[in-house]
């Protein structure tokens, strides 16, 4: 009989267990199954483990592994006995294994569902979170193999390993016997275990980005000997920005006697640098990058910014080159920004890093920027320079990341960093693609609960260099889901900057009520109209007349801010000519003075051709001491070389000391109220409207609602029915009777419809159902198309039914082409449609709209991620533009929206409980004065798509 240890040859290698993970310190490791080829690596690994760690593992002195041990620990059947290793640079740094056991504690096979688990971590890598990551992965493997519970025996002195188990968040039982602590824990994920996993993921990924953005030492690889070139330019950008760490220039073509270039130590190889190198900026041609990566990995470099092009953006050959680059870097535990990146910037005083192609450092501020495109990154920096310096002074950039092809570090990673970065109050992102929509939505929701997140999302196909999983959801649906997560979704980079500048320093409005005041009646009325168009509630504008003085503005603004009937104030200003007219500086000081007395309401300025006022607002708002000439620098942006229009990145500006805010609702203690100014009313009002909606989302996010329980739901019966139906094939649409039965198990009755292939059959069906009835054509080209005349309603008797039958067949063809059915009449109401679909990228989505033209022609549908809470269902019904039709529009009888919301919650529960239900359509759903009637339903069943958000932490596969 073959023993489990000798069965490996008949088990296929489980390649899907391989994964790259980010560790607690921000480095990476690869997790993979241990095979018979790993004997040498295992012995070498064990030799580097301390005697104490060996004692904790084997409960006795165990200086070396015997040949029998090596055989046992490298031969697995990948079912009852599994071993995983964490590797860095191809060498083992930790191992974990489980052995399936029976009730007597002896080796067993399925159906035994318990296993013993044991870890060993190399001492040099303890404290990096390797064991925690391995526990997540070995638990996922065990669940896949039918194991539901782990047992571990640990010496009481081995507190680190006990902590690994107890902190994991699983349901546990602990006992102590014969001097050994025995831990038993179920492997079914719990709310706490998922929360622990997400918290560890956030800390690890944030740390990995922090290592890139705040390195203690930087090497620029590919610095040319002659002036010009990318490498030489980046080196100059880092040096001129005032980088606070150690800087090195590297080029293998340097002569042996060259010691410096541009005042920076020069080296022929990274290996020649004495001391650690935290970040390497790679500018060499793509064909030379692998050698550079190998040198960096061997020297212990922590991360790479690869500016080199020639990767996935250039076609299939480049795409394979990009995959190889990521695999090589991860093998050494390094993370990558790029390739084909524009670079990174960190304006923090202790860092001042400009490792980018931007020729000059942006002014420091509280706004984080992320752009996948280098061109968009340039545009964002340029606009923030013009608007930041001319409108809001020091509201500049905290960090900037342009990820290029984002082969490794993505917007998700940067969100993890910004979430608890004290230097960033507002996050602005330009996304050409979203690689992991599920994760981005989760991270965006958490980030938006702490600080504003403003996003422009490209509407076209993903750039060639981006690896993006396919989604079947329309762009508008993805945008709606982002808004549900608290994302401030805008359409242009102008709107991105407009919203960012408002949110960076002004408090969030408490509601939609807006006061308008200014010295131009026309501009005030224009602002009023735009407020109405954006769904705000403006008061009639206060016209101060063109003769208004600065003191008039101050008093009017003070009164508006003190008025309890407004939540925000828009000040409109036009140039005034006359002896008493205020100058720009005087007016700006008056507005600042009034705004400083009220901390809870945002103030915006709309100005027309008033360049001086914007600069004056900036100067008036800056209360921190400034170095000589700094005020001039703040109000007079300098032009970057090669940018004659002044749109290039700005020169460095001193950063005033600022306190770190606890929340974005109000400026930090002692910080100035920086008043944003806009050249057009529509831009100011649009930014304010987004702030109002975001403030409302923040308030509601504190109570997201709950997923209600319904006693009449038969979850087990539905699961059994789905199993029986799926036995017929991989994907199918059940018949009407089976669909009605499945929906009925979730308390969703479907009004019965009987086939009517002949007039006599129609009459018989009507007698069965009872008059009045409806006669409908269900052929695909006529289904749900009442506008084409394929439906006859309120047929009160057989005569009317037969006449209608004849009319339909005369108009549209033979009965077998029409597929007519007879259905009992439902109470009159509003026709709606409810849909649910499981998207492989975004997850399960519930959609709602009115039936017919509003949803089909105008796209008036609202969407929510499943599971839907009671608050989600309420907002879903009210989110469509045609919602007033459900609430008594023009004197009509209000529909039973609570019943509609209960239906939405039941559909949500169905697709959430049973991922095999990949699509549901209820159309039409008639919402009457009392109750709802589902007149048509289809369901699609298929094996559930794989979900990567429920398993252990992993990096995107390459």
How is this structure best described in words?
The protein is an alpha/beta fold. It has 28 helices and 38 strands. The strands form six sheets. An eight-stranded mixed beta sheet has the order 1-2-3-4-5-6-8-7, sandwiched between helices. A seven-stranded mixed beta sheet has the order 11-12-10-9-13-14-15, with helices on both faces. Helix 6 crosses helix 11.
Largest sheet composition: 8 strands, mixed
Tell me the helix content: 25-40%
Mean pLDDT: 86
DSSP strand content: 15-25%
Query: How many helix segments?
Result: 28
Secondary structure elements and pairings:
Blueprint: E1 19-22, E2 28-33, H1 39-47, H2 51-58, H3 67-74, E3 81-88, E4 91-101, E5 114-121, H4 130-144, E6 149-154, H5 159-166, E7 172-177, E8 180-186, H6 191-213, E9 217-221, H7 230-240, E10 246-250, E11 260-261, E12 264-267, E13 279-282, H8 289-299, E14 303-306, H9 316-331, E15 335-337, E16 343-346, E17 353-356, E18 364-371, H10 374-390, E19 397-402, H11 411-419, E20 426-431, H12 437-448, E21 453-457, H13 475-484, E22 488-490, H14 493-505, E23 513-518, H15 521-533, E24 537-538, E25 542-543, H16 550-562, E26 568-573, H17 584-596, E27 603-607, H18 611-621, H19 630-635, E28 677-678, H20 681-701, H21 715-726, H22 736-744, E29 753-755, H23 759-769, E30 773-777, E31 791-795, H24 798-812, H25 815-818, E32 820-824, E33 829-839, E34 843-850, H26 853-856, E35 861-865, H27 870-879, H28 897-913, E36 917-928, E37 932-934, E38 937-941
Parallel strand pairs: 5-6, 9-10, 9-13, 10-12, 13-14, 14-15, 18-19, 18-20, 20-21, 21-22, 23-24, 23-25, 23-26, 26-27, 27-28
Antiparallel strand pairs: 1-2, 2-3, 3-4, 4-5, 6-8, 7-8, 11-12, 16-17, 16-19, 29-32, 30-31, 30-32, 33-34, 33-36, 34-35, 36-37, 36-38
């Amino acid at each position: 009989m073959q023993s489990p240890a000798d069965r490996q040859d008949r088990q296929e290698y489980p390649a899907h267990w391989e994964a790259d993970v980010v560790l607690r310190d921000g480095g990476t490791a690869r997790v993979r199954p241990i095979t018979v080829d790993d004997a040498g690596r295992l012995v070498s690994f064990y030799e580097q483990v301390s005697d104490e760690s060996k004692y904790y593992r084997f409960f006795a002195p165990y200086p070396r592994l015997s040949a029998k041990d090596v055989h046992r620990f490298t031969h697995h059947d990948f079912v009852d006995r599994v071993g995983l290793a964490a590797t860095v640079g191809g060498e083992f740094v930790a191992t974990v294994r489980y052995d399936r056991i029976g009730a007597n504690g002896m080796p067993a096979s399925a159906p035994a569902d318990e296993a013993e688990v044991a870890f060993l971590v190399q001492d040099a890598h303890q404290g990096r979170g390797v064991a925690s990551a391995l526990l997540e992965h070995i638990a996922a493997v065990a669940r896949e193999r039918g194991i539901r519970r782990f047992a571990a025996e640990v010496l009481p002195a081995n507190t680190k390993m006990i902590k690994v188990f107890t902190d994991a968040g699983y349901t546990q039982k602990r006992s102590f016997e014969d001097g050994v602590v025995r831990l038993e824990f179920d492997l079914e994920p719990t709310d706490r275990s998922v929360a622990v996993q997400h918290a560890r993921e956030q800390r690890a990924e944030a740390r990995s980005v922090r290592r890139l953005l705040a390195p203690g030492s930087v090497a620029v690889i590919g610095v040319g000997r002659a002036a010009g070139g990318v490498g030489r330019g980046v080196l100059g950008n880092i040096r001129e920005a005032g980088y606070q760490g150690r800087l090195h220039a590297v080029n293998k073509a340097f002569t042996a006697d060259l010691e410096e270039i541009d005042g920076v130590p020069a080296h022929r190889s990274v290996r020649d640098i004495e001391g650690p190198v935290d970040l390497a900026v790679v500018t060499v041609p793509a064909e030379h990058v692998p050698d550079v990566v190998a040198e960096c990995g061997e020297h212990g470099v922590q991360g790479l910014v690869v500016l080199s092009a020639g990767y996935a953006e250039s076609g299939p050959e480049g795409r394979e080159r990009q995959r190889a680059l990521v695999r090589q870097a991860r093998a050494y535990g390094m993370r990558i920004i790029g390739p084909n990146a524009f670079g990174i910037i960190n304006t923090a005083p202790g860092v001042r890093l400009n490792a980018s192609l931007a020729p000059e450092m942006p002014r420091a501020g509280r706004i984080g920027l992320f752009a996948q495109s280098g061109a968009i990154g340039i545009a964002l920096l340029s606009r923030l320079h013009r608007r930041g310096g001319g409108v809001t002074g020091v509201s500049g950039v905290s960090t900037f990341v342009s990820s290029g092809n984002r082969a490794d570090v993505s917007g998700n990673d940067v969100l993890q960093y910004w979430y608890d970065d004290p230097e960033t109050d507002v996050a602005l992102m330009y996304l050409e693609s979203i690689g992991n929509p599920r994760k981005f939505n989760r991270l965006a929701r958490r980030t938006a609960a702490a600080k504003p997140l403003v996003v422009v999302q490209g509407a076209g196909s993903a750039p060639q260099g981006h690896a993006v999983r396919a989604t079947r959801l329309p762009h508008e649906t993805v945008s709606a889901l982002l808004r549900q997560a608290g994302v401030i979704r805008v359409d242009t980079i102008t709107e991105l900057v407009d919203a960012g500048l408002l949110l960076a320093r002004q408090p969030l409005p408490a509601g939609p009520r807006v006061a308008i005041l200014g010295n131009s009646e026309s501009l005030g009325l224009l602002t009023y109209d735009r407020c109405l168009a954006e769904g705000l509630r403006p008061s009639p504008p206060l016209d101060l007349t063109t003769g208004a003085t600065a003191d008039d503005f101050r008093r009017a603004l003070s009164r508006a801010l003190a008025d309890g009937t407004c939540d925000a104030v828009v000040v409109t200003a036009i140039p005034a000519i006359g002896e008493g007219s205020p100058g720009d500086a005087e007016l700006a000081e008056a507005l600042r003075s009034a705004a400083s007395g009220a901390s809870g309401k945002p103030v915006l300025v709309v100005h027309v051709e008033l360049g001086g006022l914007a600069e004056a607002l900036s100067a008036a708002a800056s209360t921190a001491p400034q170095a000589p000439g700094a005020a001039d620098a703040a109000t007079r942006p300098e032009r970057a070389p090669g940018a004659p229009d002044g749109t290039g990145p700005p020169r460095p500006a001193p950063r005033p000391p600022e306190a770190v805010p606890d929340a974005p609702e109000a400026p930090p203690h002692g910080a100035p109220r920086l008043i944003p100014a806009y050249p057009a009313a529509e831009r100011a009002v649009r930014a304010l409207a987004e702030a109002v909606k975001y403030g409302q989302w923040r308030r509601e996010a504190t109570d997201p609602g709950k997923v209600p329980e319904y006693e009449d739901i038969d979850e087990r019966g539905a699961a059994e029915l789905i199993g029986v139906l799926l036995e017929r094939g991989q994907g199918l649409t059940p018949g009407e009777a089976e669909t009605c039965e499945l929906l009925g198990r979730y308390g969703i009755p479907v009004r019965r419809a009987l086939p009517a292939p002949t007039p006599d059959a129609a009459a018989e069906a009507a007698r069965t159902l009872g008059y009045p009835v409806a006669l409908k054509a269900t052929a695909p080209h006529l289904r749900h198309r009442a506008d084409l005349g394929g439906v006859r309603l309120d047929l009160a008797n057989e005569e009317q039914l037969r006449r209608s039958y004849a009319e339909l067949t005369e108009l549209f063809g033979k009965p077998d082409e029409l597929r007519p059915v007879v259905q009992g009449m439902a109470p009159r109401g509003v026709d709606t449609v409810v849909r649910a679909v499981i998207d492989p990228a975004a997850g399960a989505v519930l959609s709602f709209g009115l039936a017919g033209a509003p949803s089909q022609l105008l796209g008036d549908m609202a969407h929510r991620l499943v599971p839907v809470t009671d608050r989600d269902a309420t907002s879903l019904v009210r989110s469509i533009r045609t919602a007033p039709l459900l609430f008594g529009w023009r004197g009509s009888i209000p529909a039973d929206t609570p019943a509609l919301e209960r239906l939405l919650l039941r559909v949500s529960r169905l697709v959430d409980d049973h991922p095999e239900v990949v699509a549901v359509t209820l159309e039409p759903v008639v919402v009457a004065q009392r109750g709802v009637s589902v007149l048509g339903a289809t369901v699609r069943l298929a094996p559930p798509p794989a979900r990567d958000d429920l398993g252990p932490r992993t990096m995107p596969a390459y």
